[in-house]
Amino acid sequence: MTAQTGLSVEAREVRREFAVRDGTAVAAVAGVSLSVAAGAFVAVRGRSGSGKTTLLALLAGLDHPTSGSVLLDGVDLARVSRAERTRRLRPTGIVFQNGAAVPRLPVWENVSIGLVPLGVPMAERRQLAEAALETVALQHVVARRPEALSAGERQRAALARALLHSPRLLFADEPTSNLDPESAEIVCDVLAGAHASGATLVVASHDERMLARAARVVEMREGRLVSE
Ligand SMILES: Nc1ncnc2c1ncn2[C@@H]1O[C@H](COP(=O)(O)OP(=O)(O)OP(=O)(O)O)[C@@H](O)[C@H]1O
Ligand SMILES: [Mg+2]
Known about the structure:
This protein has 228 residues and is an alpha/beta fold. The chain is built from 7 helices and 10 strands. A hairpin with a 2-residue loop joins strand 4 (67-72) and strand 5. The two termini are 32 Å apart. The mean pLDDT is 92.
C-alpha cells in the first residue's frame, strides 16, 4: 500500500507563535530542531499543551513557522513556489488528532476525497476506500456519515484516508487516543506496516504500545524538545 522510499523531514530552529487576546504572543513551539531521516519511525511524546500537534502541523507543511525552517526531502518549503510546494507535499499524509472529516459525505467518500482532483472514477474510489477501511476494521461503516461514527471509528477512518495515498511520509497525531486496546493494536499494526513498507513515520503519542514500536522517541516540554 505504501511506496518504497520514505521522505526525510527536518525542523531547524522552528518557532511558532500564536497571538493571544492581550496582544502578547505565546510560543507553542519555541525553537525545535529535529531531523527525521528517510524511513525513520519517530514518536513524539509530551504533556497536553507541550506543542506536539503544532510541531506536526509545521513538519507536515500545514502551518508556517514564525521563524526557522522546515526541510522536506532537503528542500525548504518556504523557498519554493506554491505549485512546487503542493507537488512536494503530495506524497505526505497526516492523520489529525480529532479524525476531522467532511460532514454529510459518506465515510467512503471522505476516505477517498483526495483522489477526486486526480480524476479517479467514483467506482474505483469506492473500491479503494473499502479496501483501506477494511485494513482498519471499518468495513461495516463504509456508507455511513462521519457524524454517525464513534470518536475511535472516526480516528481509524482518518488513518484509512491517509493511507489511501500510499504516503512516503506520514504524520499521525495521537492516533490511538480514543481507541479500545483491540482497535489501538490494529492502528499500531497498520502504522508499523506502512513503516515496514518504507514510509517515514512521525507519530505524536502517549501510548506505550506505540512508543514501544518507534525506533526513536523524543519528548516535548513547553514547546521545546527535551534532550533524548
Ligand atoms: N491556534 C492557536 N492559538 C493560540 N494558542 C494555540 C493555538 N494552537 C495551539 N495553541 C497553544 O499552544 C500550545 C501547544 O498546543 P498543541 O496543540 O500543539 O499541544 P499538544 O502537545 O498537541 O497537546 P495535546 O496533547 O493536548 O494534544 C498550547 O498551550 C495551546 O493552547
Ligand atoms: Mg495535540
